[in-house]
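Forgive a beginner's question, but might I ask you for the amino acids of a protein and the tokens describing how it folds?
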Amino acid sequence: MTKRRSLASILSIALIVVACRPPVGGSVEPTASSIGGELRPSKEISVTVHLPGAPDVLTAPLAYAAASEAVAAAGITLNQIAPTAGEAPFPLIASESRLQLYIATPDAVLASATARESLVMIANLQQTTSMVLVTPVAGAATAADLSGTTILVQGMIGDEAPLLALLAREGAENVTAEFPADSSIPLDLTPLFDGTYAAAFLTRYDGLARAQEFISLESGLPTGPDGINVIDLGETSGIHGLGIWMDQTALAVEDLNIAAALILIGLTDGLAFCRDQPSDCAAVFEQGGETDRFGDSLAWSVDQFNASIWPAPNGVLDVSRVAISGVTVNKTILERAIANLPTSIDRIGEGWTPSGIELPLQ
């Protein structure tokens, strides 16, 4: 594995900005670097990455990217921001010095009239879905048992579409999906365990951990894996993972193209760092101060997130095989990033296996 910066150096310069309030500014001191080759915009560029929900371990590789020399030396600042309750999930803001990137599933993009007309996928973050359907242990045991119920969905509007299709296929009828009232804050699963919702459609790397960590209303102890059912939905290849999106109008601006490519270089490095050093990756996120989970709990979540990405036979972020009706894919940004990617960064992760860190439930 490639030797990387020490955790202390990452934490000292990592810019991590996540909240429903306006992003807090910050930057690192640019240093001379060959990373990124000749990719340098003609002016300083501010990049905002719009997250699909509350801060989770996804923000750690982005923080690593924000601190990378490829980004800093080019005069680029990178901010992250979570959705704001009551506002459009894809705020399209046109500017020649500000680049907006969006992390979302194709289903979420297609559910938004403005987004599906305006956004193109420039990178495919997850190779496979990381979503699971969970019920309390005394609740529904099969998909068909959920007929006529309401399900909590951890995600954005549109992410319920493949779930409802799978449930219908498995015999569940008249199912309603609802989303958290405020997706910018950590997910509260009390409504799942107090009976408000019959089930919850959760990310493995955040929601599933929270379901197991939930303090039982009866025992006062963590629910654990024995306190929940993970319902088999059969073949789930129709559920798409997260992608990275960019406004088509920004593609016409050379500086924004360069900035996007540099972000993908930094993110590739960050994803490889989190793959090779999950505990250090978790510490980067924890240091950001936007999490209510800590230590091995976060490292376990990094492992789960990694499982949706690695190994990546075609290279991490690859979009060459993305073929989804209604989705426009642009390969040029990633191709530009790969052409300037240091050879020391491993995009494949061949032979990757989980670290084996267990979710602490004591």
Q: What stands out?
A: The first strand starts at residue 45 and ends at 50. The chain has a mean pLDDT of 89.
